Amino acid sequence: MSDGIRKARTHVSQDEPLLFELSSPGKKAYQLPALDVPAVDPAAVLGAGNVRAEIAGFPEVSEVEIVRHFTRLATWNYAIDLGMYPLGSCTMKYNPRLNELAASVEGLASAHPYQPEALAQGALEIMAQLEAALAEITGLDAVTLQPAAGAHGELTGILLIRAYLEARGNPRRKILIPDSAHGTNPATAATAGYAVETIRSNERGMIDLDNLPRILDDGVAALMLTNPNTLGVFEENICRIAEVLHARGALLYLDGANMNALVGISRPGDTGVDVMHLNLHKTFSTPHGGGGPGSGPVAVKKHLEPFLPVPRLKRAGAAWTFDYDRPQSIGRVRAFYGNFAVLVRALAYILACGAEGLRSATLDAVLNANYIRQALLPYYELPHQAPTMHECVFSDARQARRGVRTGDIAKRLIDYGFHPYTVSFPLIVSGAMMIEPTETESKRELDLFIDALISIAREVEENPELVLKAPHNTRTARVDEVTAARKPVLRWRPPAG
Amino acid sequence: MSTYPGSYWYTKEHEWVKVEGEIGIVGITFHAQKELGDIVYVEMVKPGSRVEMGKRLGELQSVKAVSDVYSPVSGEVIEVNPVPSDAPEVLNQDPHGAGWLAKIRMSAPEEIAALMTAADYQAYLGEET
Amino acid sequence: MGQAFSLSATRVAMVKALAGQETSLRYLPKSDSERQQMLEACGVSSPDDLFAHLPAEVRLARPLGLEPGKSEYEVLEYFRARGAENGCGYASFLGAGAYYHYRPVLVDAVASRGEFLTSYTPYQAEISQGTLTAIFEFQTMLCQLTGMDVANASMYDGSTAVPEAALMAARITGRTGVVAARALHPEYRAVLATYSRNRALAVEEFGYASDTGRLDLDELERKVTDQTAAVIIQSPNFFGVIEDVPAAAEIAHGRGALLIDVFTEAVSLGLLAPPTEADIVAGELQSFAVAPNYGGPYAGALATKERYMRQLPGRLAGKTRDARGNRAFCLTLAAREQHIRREKATSNICTNQALIALMATVFMTVYGKRGLRELAEQNLAKAHYLAARLPRRFSGPFFNEFVVQTGRRCPEAVNQALLERKIIGGLPLGRFYPELANSMLLAVTEMSRREVMDAVAEVLRNE
Asked: What gap in Å lies between CA C81 and CA C70, rounded to an integer?
């Protein structure tokens, strides 16, 4: 039972204005050194038409005000450092501070992407080591570290498929995507110029293997799969699915968002996957930073290697060099080489964990999800009975009978000091409650989470209004998203008059 | 429970059309706005556009969803209701009246025969739920 | 693949025994007895039982071929060794899309707070007001700097903001062509090519005037048609030259096309006239946020006029009220985004570079209205000091980057000579512009010291 401690407290402080409201002329927080060369008159040197007037409305505040402003803002945020995020498929695991220290090492942050290669061997070695580690973990043959995020990696992966099929004479027209897929999957397929065909999951929440050959025609370029899927269930027929696709000349793309259930246990490359992306900010512990930056490396089987984004790392004697002579490459998906500082963090994590540590993390991730599943079973509907891996999906079916939906339960969870789970996704479960604890949660935190949901289930029966009007204990009450969308105000403006 | 005007015709995609001579006034049903939730934005094809029965007439956005609106009839869009662009909530408040979306000069009025009456539509809703 | 990653299982066990406790356990907050309790509650006796349902064919039958976990000290030593191999202690005159600026200490002090560093995307507005308020401030400041009405919460970087802007223009105009300046960063153009190839977006290029280094407006006029959705220019351009944005806008608008203006050096916004004639502004915010970090992560800016707001991809923070009537912020206009529209989304982007954008916000706030101006003026003064001592290739006005011809020796040889003085010289341009193979692009910032600039001038004079 909970010992009564709430983990996310309201912050006791005055209301904090915006920077522009704190501003007044003449306040400053900077101090530039004196020029060691003669000053120049911008208008004289550039022409008056090229010089701006002052930046109207830009803030002028002092250092102390800046520190207080952002510190107060910070205290209004929930974060992993404060408590668990049970968000399904987000893998909100602890962000090791060792990663941060590694990224700040001298010579790494200061490296310029156009530095002569002889002076960039440290950076290139880091990238080569990470490519090798990710290839080993995924069971695939070659890795690109260029994509800046998971969705970016997805796009890269689909472009690779297109290039491969084009080289064979026909890029084909469409991509099959399960109805349980994350929204980036169809958005990515469309961005890559493919039509999307949604395939229905069977009653066990998996790809219907019997139906697949029927919907698979020569127009299909690929199937985009997530494994385990968004129900947290392993696609037991994945090897067969790959065979069926390959027999028709189509490829199997894996969305690696749920890799946290597989590391050290199963390798996608061994199950027929041709290409996949990884999320370093999920499986490999790099911080979310409030919404980014992430990194979305893509791993491929040998036959897709010639198409990887340019440049590729290769050996030149004992040194590393970038190879730009890649005639079949899809080109660049971004300038420079990748989110290097994020790559450093991911490699630091892999080095610290090692083979055993990575595998242990997977075991604990799956144990944690199963522990939650069995504890909540008496209170919430579990629509799919297949074995749970790293995440479980309940539905609000029982609570809906009392007029309470998953979104309300999620808001009430905030009052108990937790960030909500993933609401209303995947779409194939009505009123979905998608829960992924990750391995970095203690038994105590899991028990507090379970107790909170059990308590809310009771509240739904005895006092549903309490749940419907939640959250009650936050500094900010429920936010009016409707007005925000009807009358968008996307910037501050000085008050009129 | 809402009343569905007996003089209107209804589609399976939850649009209605009210026939006034050769003009069809089109909107979404009470059921549709309830499913969508608070509507925040409305985007219709421009006046002068030709539309086909069952093809896209526009879209409605709520905070969490986007829904295409399909035209119940074929013809030319002669007028688009200006009220929803400033006050999209009118679709939630009065979907069968002030929340009309477009007026269409019908090119094939016989298409109406394929649509549902109010009674049929309510029965259809009963099946759906 | 490195030799180090192929250890036999026996050797792994040996090393583990020698190393003692696994270092990775620090990230797994459970005792063995707690694990036992949890396994019992799940009705299994060992963690492997939870994977028993996986078919044998998918199971990895051996340990991963990775080294055992290293201690904190060993991990740091590894990265320190790599850092030392990266050429420390050099003065650098490289720019070309990534710049050396001083980072005020407050930037990391704020961004390293756990509530910013380890928080998630602010979908749950009630417990994310810190992130959302900061994004709203960021969006506002970008509008103030660029002269646009609305800015999003950032893109991956400047290079990917460009194709997103191009696709946006295509959606707005219903047209399928784009005309891009050759003086737009070559790698940005390469990214545009990758994105446009699959979206039926035709990209044409137009050149620069050989004397000034500015846009060839005549060629632009010839290339813009009534199928052109947008003209894309960069100012200051890749050569550092400031473009005539109003003239380019006039040509674009004259044919019903939009103007997209791109910047790679954010500090220039502190001094140069904002591109108010543009319809969309895209750019790179690295100068405001992070050191060059070997190419990433950075943050892209994307801003536009009010009337194109709903076509803007990426996240947007909006002002609203909470149930108690207090001001609050939330992500809004989500109906543009992938998680709702799926295949009809304006983009597949599912991130903003929140932490980098936060760093940029702090940087912009520390300098403020006057400081950004003063910072830019220092950049201008130092760059013009060095440029006056070197043979400039182009005569057009410039901010803090310029192209220099290296005379008899090729740029690579000049750079070799500079390296001996622990100076990293400019970017030889031959790899991107064969016609400029005898030239290099130099960037000068407030960090460039006079005596180092004098050394550069000396080496280049001696050729």
From this structure: 15
**CATH 1.20.120.80 corresponds to the domain B9-108+117-123:** no
CB contact under 8 A, A424 and B64: yes
Query: What does the block give as tokens for A96?
Result: 């090791």
C335 contacts on B by Cβ (under 8 Å): 40-41, 61-63, 65-66
CATH number of C91-101+368-462: 3.90.1150.10
**Percentage helix, strand, coil, to 5, in chain A?**
40, 10, 50
Name the residue among C310, C340, C344 with its Cβ closest to that of B64: C340
Residue window 31-90, chain B: list those with CB within 8 Å of chain A: 38, 40-41, 61-64, 88-89
Residue-wise pLDDT tens digits, B78-113: 999 999 988 999 999 999 999 999 999 999 999 999
Q: Which residue in C86, C333, C449 is closest to A36 by CB distance?
A: C449
- ipTM computed for the complex: 0.95
Report pLDDT digits (tens) over B38-51.
999 999 999 999 99
Paired sense of beta strands A319-323 and B66-70, if any: unpaired
The domains of chain C are located at 91-101+368-462, 105-362
Strand, helix or coil for residue A175:
strand
| Closest alpha carbon to C272 in C361, C380, C364 | C380
Closest-CA residue in chain B for A423?
B64
Is the CB of residue C96 less than 8 Å from the CB of residue C431? no
> Where in chain A are all domains bearing CATH 3.90.1150.10?
359-483
Which of A159, A238, A477 comes nearest C324 by C-beta? A477
Q: Which residues have a Cβ under 8 Å from the Cβ of C128 and sit 6 or more positions away? A: A76, A77, A78, A290, C119, C120, C122
CATH of the domain spanning A359-483: 3.90.1150.10
Q: CA–CA separation, A119 vs A107, rounded Å?
A: 10
- Taking CA–CA distances from C397, the nearest residue in chain A reads A46
- What span, in angstroms and rounded, lies between the C-alpha atoms of C350 and C123? 12
Sequential DSSP letters for B12-32: TTSEEEEEETTEEEEEE-HHH
